[in-house]
User: Which sequence fits this backbone?
């Protein structure tokens, strides 16, 4: 009996064990199925992360060149410092690493200590570290026999000219991704494709031999070749900086130089600007104070607002009322439609009544009777109201659209704005629109439309990148002249070129006159009514000027606008025309446009004084006579021992050079007077009486009766040597139009 009971117990145990074994088998099988099938991807990723290291290889970002292949944005070789905190041996070593890296990398100690204490298998400590610093880190690694700190190749964006062209170039973030300007617009072309290095690791996390490594090359980014000419850009920026200061401009200045025959942008700038190497530093101290006065979310929001405004490209992103510069286009429409002719006449009593409104002319008392040419030279609002009325609302609106002013130009830059036109234009709207008020367009839209007037009537698409090239220099893409439409005929274009040249020689644009060059253009001054109503501040104006040259064979157009200049009078003819003149004086000779002087201009033309020290008396006299230079000799010696002014000095052709034969020139010092308000002749006579020379610039040939000195390069009361040349800028103060 006992034996039977034992056998029965054994069978039960066997059955129980079998059942338990089966249950365990099923559980294991289910778990294996779950891990190997259901969660296969997850556990495979976990295994790979433990058995391999996957490093990203940063591609070299493409270079941005100017039109002459001068690098404007480059990527310099740097390194990324990484840390494998899991390999840190003890707390003491970790503290040493945190202290040393924070000091060498100029980081907060707590920030590095946090990375150390996380014990992560891999973490980036800092990117864009210069070789000088990483060499010090390598020395630290060797001295302490560390195997937890590593350096990997990287690149950092660098803008060698600092603030130069900043609003156009834009900048990149810490991850080398374009955040504004060309850097953002052409991100796909510039960025390239990252590479990878996948390395097998052992149980300790150390890398296995090279045979277990998989390497995928990074593909470097393509480069951009711009239409921007670095020299012309420097000329534009220099003169905009001067205009910003001279006119105490409150809301920035902007300028564009365009090739009228291709649409290529030769220069574009907004001032004040910023340094793309350090774009997140607020430039304006007042803006920084406004940010610092806030806390929390308000401070963050204000900082973002200020920075976005700082980065804003005014030349393409800010629409404004163009004022009388738009009269160029109104005149083009009317001539093309033959709604007016050169024989058309207009009478201006100082205002024009439209519906119930009396719309004033800028000139109190009016211009009286005038023909078409006189109307544009006088920039007469009542005359242009009549010209607009002769077109009618429908035709005016059709041409407004045809000139590309109802849509964006399509330039290859981010942030381009679109202007505002009338929803339902009425008679009063047409009247004010004819002279450029109560609608808005961007500076880029205006200069593009005016370039069409200059180039024979063809509207072109503006562009700023002419080529995309790969790392071998092969052209991937190219951009050239793109015609949008023919807006006006060549005949109308020729007529306007002649008329607009007269605006500069005898009209409201006299202060843009450049001796030897045929400059055509139009002044503009517009009101900022919306802002005045919103702020309660009165007298807010935008003064501007748009010009092209040479008038008989246009090559370039230049537009400059000053937003809220704080001077008197605030007119394009006074504030901006001199800026246009200085830009043209710089750019046209650089482009090798040959000057052609009239006889009158030759008499006024400046001369460069040759050096004749050491010459025999007769030889020196001959050299000066050949150059048409007046001279006087002091002394009876046979050899020239000194001269004033010095060799290379640029003076008026009427100046008298003094040659000395018995020693050096006098070392007497004289006090420079204040020449402000003097006429050209008075200023010349005043300086001559002191033994000083004048170089007169500006409206020196103006036929107006109010040409006076407004600026001199040597300040009053300063003591200078006899023979010093003082450059004096003259302006025709009668040009107070608009």
Assistant:
């Amino acid at each position: 009996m006992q034996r039977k009971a034992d056998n029965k117990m054994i069978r039960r145990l066997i059955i129980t064990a079998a059942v338990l074994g089966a249950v365990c088998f099923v559980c294991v099988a289910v778990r294996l199925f779950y891990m190997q099938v259901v969660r296969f991807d997850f556990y495979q990723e976990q295994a790979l992360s433990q058995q391999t290291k996957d490093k990203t290889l940063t591609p070299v970002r493409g270079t941005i060149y100017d039109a002459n292949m001068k690098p404007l944005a480059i990527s310099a070789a740097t390194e990324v410092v990484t840390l494998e905190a899991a390999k840190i041996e003890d707390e003491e070593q970790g503290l040493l690493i945190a202290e040393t890296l924070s000091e060498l990398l100029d980081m907060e100690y707590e920030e590095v200590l946090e990375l150390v204490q996380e014990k992560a298998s891999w973490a980036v400590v800092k990117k864009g570290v210069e070789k000088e610093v990483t060499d010090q880190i390598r020395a630290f690694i060797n001295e302490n026999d560390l195997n937890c700190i590593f350096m990997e190749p990287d690149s950092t964006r660098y803008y060698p000219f600092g603030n130069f062209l900043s609003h156009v170039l834009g900048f990149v973030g810490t991850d080398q991704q374009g955040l504004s300007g060309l850097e953002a617009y052409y991100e796909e072309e510039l960025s390239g494709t990252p590479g990878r290095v996948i390395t097998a690791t052992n149980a300790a996390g150390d890398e296995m031999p090279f045979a277990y490594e998989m390497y995928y090359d990074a593909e470097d980014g393509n480069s951009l070749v711009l239409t921007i000419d670095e020299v012309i850009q420097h000329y534009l920026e220099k003169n905009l900086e001067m205009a910003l200061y001279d006119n105490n401009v409150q809301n920035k200045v902007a300028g564009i130089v365009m090739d009228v025959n291709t649409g290529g942008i030769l220069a574009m700038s907004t001032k004040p600007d910023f340094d793309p190497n350090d774009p997140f530093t607020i430039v304006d101290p007042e803006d920084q104070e406004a940010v610092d006065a806030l806390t929390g979310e308000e401070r963050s929001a204000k900082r973002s607002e200020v920075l976005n405004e700082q980065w804003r490209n005014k030349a393409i992103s800010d629409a404004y009322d163009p004022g009388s510069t738009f009269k160029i286009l109104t005149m083009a429409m009317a001539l093309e439609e033959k709604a007016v002719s050169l024989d058309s006449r207009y009478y201006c009593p100082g205002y024009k009544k439209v519906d119930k409104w009396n719309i004033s002319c800028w000139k109190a008392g009016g211009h009286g009777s005038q023909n078409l040419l006189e109307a544009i030279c006088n920039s007469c609002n009542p005359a242009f109201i009549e010209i607009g009325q002769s077109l009618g609302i429908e035709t005016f609106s059709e041409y407004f659209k045809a000139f590309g002013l109802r849509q964006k130009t399509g330039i290859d830059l981010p942030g381009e704005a679109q202007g505002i036109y009338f929803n339902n234009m009425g008679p009063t709207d047409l009247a004010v629109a004819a002279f450029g008020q109560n609608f808005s367009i961007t500076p880029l839209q205006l200069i593009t439309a005016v370039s069409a007037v200059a180039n024979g009537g063809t509207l072109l698409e503006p562009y700023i990148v002419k080529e995309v090239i790969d790392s071998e220099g092969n052209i991937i893409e190219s951009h050239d002249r793109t015609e949008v439409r023919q807006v006006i005929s060549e005949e109308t274009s020729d007529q306007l070129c002649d008329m607009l040249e007269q605006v500069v020689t005898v009209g409201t644009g006299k202060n843009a006159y450049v001796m030897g060059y045929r400059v055509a253009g139009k002044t503009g001054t517009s009101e900022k009514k919306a802002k005045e109503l919103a702020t309660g501040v009165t007298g807010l104006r935008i003064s501007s000027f748009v010009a092209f040259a040479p008038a008989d064979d246009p090559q370039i157009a230049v537009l400059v606008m000053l937003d809220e200049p704080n001077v008197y009078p605030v007119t394009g003819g006074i504030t901006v025309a001199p800026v246009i003149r200085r830009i043209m004086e710089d750019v046209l000779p650089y482009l090798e446009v040959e000057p052609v002087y009239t006889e009158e201009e030759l008499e006024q033309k400046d001369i460069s004084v040759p050096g004749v020290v050491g010459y025999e008396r007769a030889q020196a006299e001959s050299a000066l006579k050949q150059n048409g230079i007046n001279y006087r000799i002091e002394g009876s010696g046979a050899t020239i021992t000194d001269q004033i002014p010095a060799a290379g000095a640029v003076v008026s052709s009427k100046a008298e050079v003094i040659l000395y034969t018995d020693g050096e020139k006098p070392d007497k010092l004289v006090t420079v007077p204040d020449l402000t308000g003097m006429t050209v002749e008075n200023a010349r006579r005043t300086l001559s009486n002191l033994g000083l020379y004048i170089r007169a610039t500006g409206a020196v040939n103006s036929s107006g009766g109010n040409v006076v000195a407004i600026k001199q390069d040597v300040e009053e009361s300063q003591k200078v040597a006899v023979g010093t040349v003082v450059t004096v800028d003259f302006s025709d103060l009668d040009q107070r139009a608009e």
Residues 2-38 form one domain.
